[in-house]
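Lay summary. Proteins are chains of building blocks that fold into shapes, and those shapes determine what they do. In this project we predict the shape from the chain. Here is one chain we studied, written as its sequence of building blocks.
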Amino acid sequence: MARKSTETLDKKEAKDPSFGDLKRKHESTRGSRRAATKSKYFQPDSEDDSEVEEAPEDGSSSAVVESGDDSGDVSSEALSEDEQRPKKRKGPAFTKATETAPSSGSKGKELWRQGVNTGLAPGTQIIIKKPKPRTPGKTPYLDITIHPNTMLFLKDLKANNDREWLKMYDADYRSSLKDWNSFVESLTEELTKIDDTVPELPLKDVVFRIYRDIRFSKDPTPYKPYFSAAWLVHHASRTGRKGPYAAYYVQISPNDSFVGGGYWSPDARALAALRTTIDKNPQRLKDVLMNDKMRAEFLSGSSTKTAVKSFVKTNSETALKTKPKGYDAGHTDIDLLRLRRFTVGTKLTDAEVLDAQVLRRIADLFSALHPFIACLNRIVLPDPGEEEDDDEDDEGGDEDGEAEDEQDGESGTEVSDA
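And here is the predicted shape, written in a compact code that computers can read:
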């Protein structure tokens, strides 16, 4: 199409010499229009530039419109290709980046924003050194003690319970956690000597993490300001800090360290077993609570008469307000039956935690706690060895009726002698 139009224009220009002059004037007019359009975006606004197009001095523009029949046909053919093509719009020129400002209302708090002149050359690297961990000073790190730097870190964490702060002081956290883990390993060795049901578990099964679950909590702080560990073990299942059994527990924190143990939150089956024992044989639990070491270390030095009351008071926060289902409100041990938690504990001062004999101190507390832990675990999950012995006795009696009668007679004699 373009080649055909060009050939037509050349033929008419050869026949009429004035046609070439008319074509050149028309092209100069189009050039002035394009120049005026360009000045709209790149030249400053002023009153003199209000008119974009200027009329040519010799009236060539009117000559193009008012030409004869031949010239009018030529101009329409010449302009049909360029005039009818849509023109691309040019966007406004952009200002420099330094003149822009952030649209948000947190100006000055953001880590980076457009338009800030740092004075650094492109490609310059900035290295911010993190603080180094505290020096141990004259006190060395030992496996059998808690270092003072560990308690200082927990104190700082409580005052700055924030993710950004912990990232900055990650070195202190790592050294404190390593100190705590080594102490827990030493404490596990001592505990296995006291309670043979405690195996040498890996640290991940004993030590609690400091990260809090804040999904359903009103407290938004992301970390626990203390280190803690628990040994939930039983001959039937060795589960470390997880499991449906009574546990040994230790926690260190400035002005909030303590050692304790028991059944923190028994499930329905375990709670029913505990209440059945209290109903039928309450003295089994009372004898453990009235133990001399138990009363001295965990029941505020109470007497044998007030030991049970002190235990009930310790766990009264989660106790039922009324009698449990299936039991009489006038039961002699109704206070014990209402309990939904069976735990004891004693606090440690910061001086005791930082003392060189802290490992021996906690081991002695675990020793006093051992009869209580063993009693709860036996009630909730009886020894399978004892159950097997009972089954064997029953089978033997079924096989020989005469032997059963003899055993009954012997057992009756023993009871009467007792």
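What the prediction tells us: The first strand starts at residue 227 and ends at 234.
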